[in-house]
Each structure stands twice: as C-alpha cells, then as structure tokens.
Amino acid sequence: MSDNHRTARRARAGTTESPWVRRTLIGLALAFMFLFLVLPLAAVATEALRKGFGAYVEALKEPDAWSSIRLTLIVAAITVPMNLVFGVAAAWAIAKFEFRGKALLTTLVDLPFAVSPVVAGLIYVLVFGAQGWFGPWLAEHDIKIIFAVPGIVLATVFVTFPFIARELVPLMQAQGTDEEQAAIVLGATGWQTFWRVTLPNIKWGLLYGVILCNARAMGEFGAVSVVSGHIRGQTNTMPLHVEVLYNEYQSVAAFAVASLLAILALVTLVIKSVIEWRHEREMKAIADLPPERPPTPATVA
C-alpha cells in the first residue's frame, strides 16, 4: 500500500496517527478504566458478598442502614426538583436575556464548583448553627436546620446547583432566540412559548443535567458530613453510614451499603447512555430529513 493510500485511509478514520499509536492509546485507556473503575467495583462486590448473600441482605435490612437509604432518597427527591426549577430559570435568564448583573449570575452559578463542599457546609453552620447569625432566633422558634434534614438538603442543593444550569446554558445559547421570538410574534404567551418551544428543544440536555444532579445528590459526602452531625439512624446518609460502619470495622456491612451506592451509580450511567443514544438518534433523524423545497408558482396559485 502506497503512502498516499495510507494517508487517505487515516484521513477517513479521522486521524493521521499510525496504527500502533492508536492501539497504544486505546490500550492505555482500557487499562486506566480497568484499574480505576472495574477493579474497584469488583472489590466492592466481592467484599460485600464475602460472608454470603444472607449477610449482605441483613446488612441492608439493618435499621440504621435502611434509615440512611431512606434519608438519601428523600434528600435527592427534594434537591433535584429544586435544582430543576432553579437551573432552568438561571439558564433561561443567562441564555435568552441581556441584563445588568448577568456576569455576576453566571459566576454565582459556577461558585459551587470553585468552593470545597466542606467549606460550603461550614458556611451553613456559620449562618444557621447554634452560635451562627440566625442560630438564637431559630432556637427561640424551635426551628432546627443544622444537624437535621433541612441542613442536609440545603448543603446538597448548594453543591448540586450548577449541574442542570451548566448543562442548559450552552445549549440554549446555541439555539438562539429566533423560535421564541417567532412564537411571541404569532401571539403566544410567555408560558406557552416556554412549554411548546423552549422546553422541547432542551429536553435531552435537561434530562442529562437531572441525572448528573441526582447522582451527585445521592453521593455527596463533604458538605453533608459537616451539617449532619452524624446522628446515627437520623441524619446519616448512605455515604456517611458507610464511613461509620467502616470505622467500626464492620467491613461487610460497609461494603454492602457501598455496593448499593455503586448499583445506583451504574443505573444512572445506563440511563445517561440511553438518553445520549436517543438524542443522537433524534439528531440523525433530523439531519436525514430532506430539505424543504420553496413553493413553485403553480403551487402558490
């Protein structure tokens, strides 16, 4: 095979690198995935089932474990809808409008990415703790936020806020405002424009952001650890319960709960892959549609 043929073949493949370079890169990527993804998951499953499936089930049925599972699901069920509303509103404002303070709003959306979750938890303790700014007033009215479910929800909302907004902002900016303006000119109200024009255009990005937000909400440790107080059976989420069990040398129970978190993560990954596949399929179907022909004089007549 001549050099010209080899170059043309590599260009069709999307790369000009030689085959051994591609194989080396693929091998390194697969080795990395095996070492840092497959092997840890296999270790978690092995340790969780080390004393048999019966011991695994008993570890999950234990009251404190069940309480941590229930609390994790409750926090995620509260956090994700809140961030859904906040994220869509922030993305819509940033992508569709020009206003004073837009740069500040964009910076605030990205703030949780720059602040350590532990620092975020300490901020809430400073504001709502017993010695915090609003602590005496909250204690006087018998309202408990820190070391209770509301504090866990607030900390989780803070660390997961950017996921939906950051997924939607570039998507909305790329789509522009032409369709919304056309709908308004045709007499649609603001809500009609949102439900019938904007929302269908962002549905896949929105679902993707919701999945990422939910995964982070269930797995958050740092901020929740600060505001929860580690009250066993009351304010321990699944990650915190795993830490408690492991520190007490209950390795089988710890890995059993950790395996449930891993299963939830894998389910999230599968849903994410299905959404990406559906989105790519829809985009391909749209791209394959024949272009509309302009009306001819006979058709107009």
UniProtKB/TrEMBL annotation:
Entry keywords, A to Z: Membrane, Sulfate transport, Transmembrane, Transmembrane helix, Transport
Matching Pfam families: BPD_transp_1
Sequence intervals crossing the membrane: 25-49, 69-95, 107-133, 145-165, 206-231, 251-275
UniProt topology in membrane: Multi-pass membrane protein
Main location: membrane
Keyword match Transmembrane helix: yes
PANTHER family from the UniProt entry: SULFATE TRANSPORT SYSTEM PERMEASE PROTEIN, SULFATE TRANSPORT SYSTEM PERMEASE PROTEIN CYSW
Protein function: Part of the ABC transporter complex CysAWTP (TC 3.A.1.6.1) involved in sulfate/thiosulfate import. Probably responsible for the translocation of the substrate across the membrane.
Subunit structure comment from the entry: The complex is composed of two ATP-binding proteins (CysA), two transmembrane proteins (CysT and CysW) and a solute-binding protein (CysP).
Protein name as catalogued: Sulfate transport system permease protein
Organism of origin: Variovorax ginsengisoli
